[in-house]
Automatic annotation (TrEMBL):
InterPro entries: ssDNA-bd_transcriptional_reg, Whirly
Protein name: Uncharacterized protein
Keywords for this protein: Transit peptide
GO biological process: defense response; regulation of DNA-templated transcription
Record keyword Transit peptide present: yes
Amino acid sequence: GVTDLKDVLWSGSLTFKHALSTSAANVDENASVKKYASYTVFKGKAALSISPILPLFTKVESGGSRVDRNGSVMLTFFPAVGQRKYDYTKKQLFALSPTEVGSLISLGPAESCEFFHDPSMKSSHEGQVKKSLSITPLGSDNGYFVNITVLNNVQKTNERLSVPVTKAEFAVMRTALSHQVCVILHGFTLFHKVAWSLAPGAHICFSIY
């Protein structure tokens, strides 16, 4: 459960890889494409990682595709349990919609924003877990606090994690999120089209660091 996350994730790193393979006879757009991206900030009491969750597509009889699940940007918070050690088993997740990402990246130096989520909304479990994410300025144009609060009415717990993000770190986050909006909206449709045009057995790989 407890590990030194810096052995796995680069501090302040932004990585992106994209690989496609058309070697299978029936290529599935979701299963044949491996993608990941993350930007992680490590601080004394918690770490924050940002990565896109791609939309899921299903082929339709007309030959096109429809969206089964919309994409989002996942914020993952890891509590610190010692110097440079974080407990990923106690992580807290918050998925931002494209509109929420827009609110975050358009923040001014003295502005703040807050989002409220119920993971079980419109189900029989609605209200059991409530999450809130707030981004508030540090002051003097020095950056922001990124805070998550998770209220679990079943387990009777109320957990809160806060990560101070410097002005430079937030600038990287803003740039990463701006690019990730395209990813979560379109799911690299261009790369999919390139893959379909290749001969069976062909393989292409894109890497950006």
